[in-house]
Design goal:
Elements (H helix, E strand, L loop, with lengths): L10 H16 L17 H4 L30 E4 L13 E3 L7 H11 L3 E3 L8 E5 L8 E6 L2 E6 L2 H18 L5 E5 L5 E7 L7 H13 L4 E7 L22 H13 L3 E8 L4 H6 L22 H17 L4 E5 L11 H4 L1 H11 L5 H16 L5 E5 L16 E4 L10 H5 L5 E3 L6 E3 L11 H7 L19 E9 L8 H20 L8 H11 L2
Parallel strand pairs: 2-3, 2-4, 4-6, 8-9, 8-16, 9-10, 10-11, 11-12, 12-13, 13-14, 14-16, 15-16
Antiparallel strand pairs: 1-7, 5-6, 5-7
Length: about 550
């Protein structure tokens, strides 16, 4: 009789098996009912060979528990657990690019440098390698990350998705030293996710902006709004109107460097020249453009939109900078035009009222002249193919002129005169981006009852549906809300240094990234999320 060993045994189990085998060998001629009798000479029993010795015990195979999802900010949306050792950076491994995926070279070189492993380019993947590949039919910016057989494969339908897969790999390694076994399928909940920076009131260096772009890329944020023109400054070099440019400004060479890094990190820069308000830097060089009331008051930053020269200079700047910025978006501003904040705009600014009637008919009001201004500026930029944006308080109802249908609403406030609840815009079919000033406005110096927003409040209370105040809009409008940006406004510019601003927005940005990428309620407590965000940063 031969006994086989099923599966690995260790310690007492292995010892018991050895004893049992020895016993079987010693009793191989016996019966189950009593001691064995001596075989008679010449019998078959006597001629039978003795039992063979047991086979050597096989080396035990190591087993692994089911893996857990990688620890990242934002959290991945789906992870299929598996048993295995996962993946760790090792000298033998490298980063390679799959066939027909040459456009991923930048992503490959970046992650190789971050993980401290070699970049080997377009060669076949070997043991321990990270392979990047384009392909598949997933949603834009989606990716699949598979850890299996000691290697990693990150694939996606576009370069942005593969890049975000490398961010997941990088963060997981920073958090735990490894990427767990299994498969990640991930994609963003919202297509527009980002940061807005007021560089007009406060000058930020190119290096500071570049650091924010790197931070944004790691958080899977993809939009950087640059508000570079306002009353306090005009902060980018100009050939068409150099007279409006502030002493502290970015050169166009610096802007191109920023744009190159943004493209590498899949961040689109959204420039904004705000008009017809917030043009104080332009008016300082061209005082003849200043708006004047019937009483002779000159509200800061407001140009006279009845003066054709106001449109000419703004259009010159729009044409110049729409060529500099290649991204898919342009922000036209349109907020806080002081003429429309008067109790009776027609009586306070009779010249504007006359111009409105002359252009749009006897029923036209000042709001129609302002809406016509917005539409005319949109017409200047529209041939570039960019998607056009304007602040929500630049849209008015009840006039003879309506804002162009293709303008996206950037909703920031319900407090200004003329501002309406979000549903008023959404019910008209407008697409909207959320910049809720209750949660997403970081206003230097905290004027006008603003308080610095906290990451905790965003993480625990806010969602993209919370567009105004603290109450969400109905879920049926979710698809029209395209995303959100966290905004830095420098009203009291010297209240914080650039370094303090960077530190102050770190956790709010991380919390925002979680909410616009993954629509599920977070599973971590705020303290757990904060600790993880600090661990995986940089």
């Amino acid at each position: 009789m031969r006994y086989s060993i099923r599966g690995p045994r260790r310690g007492p189990a292995l010892l018991a098996t050895s004893v049992a085998l020895a016993t079987v060998a010693a009793c191989s001629g016996g019966s189950a009912s009593g001691p064995a009798s001596a075989p008679s000479p010449g019998s078959a029993t006597a001629a039978a060979p003795t039992s063979a010795p047991p086979s050597p015990t096989p080396t035990p195979t190591r087993t692994y528990p089911l893996s857990s999802a990688p620890r990242t900010v934002p959290a991945v949306r789906a992870h299929e657990a598996a048993r295995g050792p996962g993946w760790k950076p090792a000298p033998a491994g490298g980063v390679v690019i799959a066939a027909n995926s040459g456009g991923l070279a930048d992503e490959g070189k970046l992650i190789a440098g971050e993980l401290g492993i070699p970049y080997r380019g377009a060669v076949a993947a070997g043991p321990g390698d990270v392979e990047l590949a384009l392909g598949g039919t997933g949603a834009p910016e989606s990716y699949t990350l598979v850890v299996q057989g000691g290697g990693v494969r990150i694939s996606g339908p576009d370069e942005a998705g593969v890049f975000y897969g490398t961010r997941t790999l990088k963060q997981s390694v920073k958090a735990t030293g490894a990427m767990p076994e299994g498969t990640v399928n991930d994609r963003p909940a919202k297509p527009q996710r980002g940061l807005n920076v007021d560089t007009a009131r406060k000058h930020f260096t190119a290096a500071w902006i570049e650091d924010r772009i790197r931070e944004m890329g790691d958080l899977k944020l993809n939009q950087l709004g640059l508000h570079f023109s306002d009353d306090q400054g005009f902060r980018i070099e100009s050939e068409s109107h150099p007279e409006v440019v502030s002493a502290q400004h970015l050169t166009k060479a610096e802007v191109r460097r920023i744009l190159a890094l943004a493209a590498e990190r899949h961040v689109t820069v959204v420039p904004e020249i705000d008009s017809p308000g917030h043009l104080g830097a332009v008016i300082a060089a061209h005082p003849d453009l200043q708006l004047r009331s019937a009483a002779g008051r000159t509200p800061r930053g407001a140009v006279d939109i009845a003066n054709p020269d106001s449109a000419k200079i703004v259009d010159d700047l729009l044409r110049e900078y729409s060529r500099l910025f290649p991204g898919a978006y342009w922000h036209l501003g349109a907020d806080e035009y002081v003429a429309l904040m008067a109790k009776d705009p027609e009586a306070t600014y009779p010249e504007l009222a006359r111009a409105a009637k002359a252009k749009y008919g006897p029923s036209a009001r000042v709001q129609d002249l302002a809406t016509g201004w917005l539409n005319d500026r949109a017409a200047v930029v529209r041939p570039t193919g960019k998607t056009l944006k304007a602040w929500n308080d630049g849209f008015f109802t009840g006039g003879v002129v309506s804002a162009a249908k293709d303008l996206e609403v950037e909703y920031w406030t319900g407090k200004e005169i003329g501002a309406r609840p979000p549903v008023s815009y959404l019910s008209q079919g407008r697409k909207m981006v959320n910049l809720n000033d209750e949660y997403l406005y970081y206003v230097l110096g905290e004027p006008n009852d603003f308080a610095y927003p906290t990451g905790r409040r965003i993480y625990e209370q806010w969602t993209p549906l919370v567009v105004r105040g603290t109450a969400p809009v109905p879920a049926k409008y979710d698809a029209q809300i395209l995303g959100a940006r966290f905004a830095v406004w420098c009203d009291l510019a010297n209240s914080q240094t650039p370094a303090q601003v960077a530190a102050g927005i770190q956790l709010p940005l991380a919390a925002l990234s979680q909410k616009v990428w993954n629509p599920a309620k977070p599973t971590q407590t705020w303290d757990q999320f904060r600790a993880l965000a600090e661990k995986v940063r940089g």
